[in-house]
């Protein structure tokens, strides 16, 4: 087992020191380094200030790997490169391929390239350059003395892309990380965190390698199994054994692994069963269909969706009889079932799902905030309508409603 | 105006270095110190390790105020006190009143007090002790050389209680903080960070109070003006003067302030102009309508939306002639404009907006990933269709398309 690699993170940005945002980049990077067997010993946050940045770089010589995020942008207060140059004396050069891709980017997006954009192509002489697939400034790797410095933009989407596509693989290879922490996440839906923990109590407390960490997510629960071993095979072996024990107890709540989402599984199952779907959405306002469209395979299964937010739209677009609305209200089992039936017909799909309810902030039609009717009509025209009550604010109520709809769809077709 | 107080935060806890949690304590403390006129220069996260903790305390002598959270618990890996003692040589004593309140606490809650709970009553000789109204370990304030050290537990609820009830007032009094930092965020859309910076270059570099900090967000840019003054009135005065100068240059890109969102402004303007809207969505799949529905006022302006994901749905639900699709494709200016026109009619709304394009991961109809046509038909049936090209993955392309649609709507009705 090779020796321990000591890493530290430096996050550059005054917005962090002002408390405008939490340092979620540091959390994400720490988790991913740990999974590759790299131990993080320090996080440092420092502002866009040349002297203080340089001092932090000075301290960072204590580490084998230093990941620096932020301060690579085009503006004057982006000083990461300059501060590192001041500490190391390395010279800054323009990276020609990056200049070209920046110019192409601005051509493509019909935007005006200003001189300071060139700055984002500045790298240190001798760097390895990692392409930024979602933004402009690339990632940079440069060795100085016995320390490997990695620089990425602070924008989370760009940092994550560069880290997972290039930096982690680069470090694993460079340091021959032949001892690893391998993790596998089991994803459960339809069971609460406390119940899951209760069922697995003895297992969780007696288990050391892999460790079992339950985590409650929005509308679902995950178990993270983390095994420490000399290689991935051994770790996987350890994890599989424990996984079998877990699934023998709570297996029928499992829907997926790692980064799989319930939406993804629903799309998979629909595709396998050659079923198409359409949604009629009131309080969710298109959040269900949008969640499905996030999945690349969506075009095989989603015909479309009707967001019928106003009562008129319900009547006019989905032919919900005015009588139903005046008699039962739009937030009713009757209206929900008709919405599902009609949208199924309108979009000529096999399955129709509908969401109608009260997202708040105030009651509506005398129904409490959080009241949501979800109806699913299947390919045999059997409709199941359930009244749910969700906690939270406008946003979480809508999110939980969509999650519940996906859960019920999954149960129907799994 | 009294001189600038320089603070830094030290968060102790391996769970932060493993990425199990984000450092939200640091965000909270930073915000509250800034509001009291104390500038935070560094955040440091370090694990429960005696040597490394001691080294971090060594570095922290650079600051006037050091806020240390975590590592005060009863367990063996709570080493904050020991590490600080090692750095300073201060002696640790038991705080009798705290011992008593701990004993009472365990009596009250009918729990067994274990010997290691006594450890939580340990303070440094000469400390000021701040009662913990929601937990066991108290807060501690101790001066060492020219630095004031504050220690609080890492549990957010306990940290927040001790900070707001005792620490902040203590610091304000101790440092005669009759000056404050007041911030205002200006939100711009339709102009890139680099271009904004370019236009404001002289202003930004000559400006010291308030300072001007640009930050690029998804599809928009913000400028944070932070003024340092004796009171809020003076700070506001300083900010307003600078804001006027800024707006005289880039004013027509401004859409809002502080936490306002472009969706919120669009909904406001639509409501003020008594206009209703409906969207026809292909690649966005309901993300636009769902973003509008996030705003509580949405019901006044959104009639609904048609997610027409499949070509058939476009023909069947929005009566897009098959000829248009076979001749120009669904990703075309012609299809986009018809979608906007038809959805406006179908939902009897004043404005119709449509999104059709290629979210990826692969090309479609020979169009590049990121190609998006957005069409807006206004209340006079004037339609404006623009072809955009967005960078990024499936998710960011869809998000940026919606942001751009909101931007164009805002320009239309602002």
From TrEMBL, chains A, B:
MoaB/Mog domain boundaries: 8-174
InterPro entries according to UniProt: CinA, CinA-like_C, CinA_C, CinA_KH, Competence-induced_CinA, MoaB/Mog-like_dom_sf, MoaB/Mog_dom
Signal peptide residues on this chain, from the entry's feature table: none
Family as reported in the entry's similarity comment: Belongs to the CinA family.
Name under which the protein is recorded: Putative competence-damage inducible protein
Naturally occurring in which organism (per UniProt): Gracilibacillus marinus
Taxonomic path: Bacteria, Bacillati, Bacillota, Bacilli, Bacillales
Gene, per the UniProt record: cinA
């Amino acid at each position: 087992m090779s020796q321990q690699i000591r890493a530290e993170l430096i996050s550059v940005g005054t917005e962090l020191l002002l408390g405008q945002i939490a340092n979620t980049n540091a959390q994400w990077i720490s988790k991913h380094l740990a999974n590759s067997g790299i131990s993080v010993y320090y996080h440092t946050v420092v502002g866009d200030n040349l002297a203080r940045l340089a001092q932090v770089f000075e301290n960072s010589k204590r580490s084998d790997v230093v990941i620096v995020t932020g301060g690579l942008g085009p503006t004057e207060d982006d000083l990461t490169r300059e501060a590192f140059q001041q500490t190391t004396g390395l010279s800054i050069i323009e990276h020609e391929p990056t200049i070209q891709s920046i110019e192409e980017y601005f051509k493509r997006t019909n935007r005006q390239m200003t001189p300071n954009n060139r700055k984002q192509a500045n790298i240190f002489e001798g760097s390895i350059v990692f392409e930024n697939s979602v933004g402009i400034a690339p990632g940079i790797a440069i060795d100085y003395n016995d320390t490997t410095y990695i620089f990425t933009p602070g924008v989370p989407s760009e940092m994550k892309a560069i880290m997972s596509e290039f930096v982690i693989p680069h470090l694993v290879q460079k340091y021959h990380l032949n001892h690893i922490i391998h993790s596998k996440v089991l994803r459960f839906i339809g069971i609460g965190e406390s119940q899951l923990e209760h069922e697995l109590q003895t297992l969780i407390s007696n288990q050391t390698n892999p460790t079992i960490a339950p985590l409650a997510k929005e509308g679902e629960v995950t178990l993270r199994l983390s095994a420490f071993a000399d290689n991935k095979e051994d770790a996987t072996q350890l994890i599989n054994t424990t996984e079998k024990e877990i699934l023998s107890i709570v297996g029928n709540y499992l829907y997926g692994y790692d980064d799989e989402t319930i939406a993804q599984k629903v799309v998979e199952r629909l595709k396998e069963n050659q079923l198409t779907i359409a949604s009629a959405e009131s309080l969710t306002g298109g959040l269900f269909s949008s969640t499905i469209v996030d999945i690349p395979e969506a075009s095989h299964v989603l015909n479309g969706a009707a967001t019928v937010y106003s009562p008129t739209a319900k009547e006019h677009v989905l032919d919900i009889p005015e009588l139903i609305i005046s008699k039962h209200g739009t937030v009713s089992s009757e209206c929900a079932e008709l919405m599902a039936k009609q949208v199924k017909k309108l979009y000529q799909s096999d399955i129709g799902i509908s969401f109608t309810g009260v997202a708040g902030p105030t009651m509506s039609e005398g129904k409490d905030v959080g009241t949501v009717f979800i109806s699913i009509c299947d390919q045999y025209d059997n409709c199941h309508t359930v009244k749910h009550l969700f906690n939270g604010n406008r946003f979480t109520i809508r999110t939980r409603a969509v999650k519940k709809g996906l859960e019920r769809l999954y149960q129907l077709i799994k």
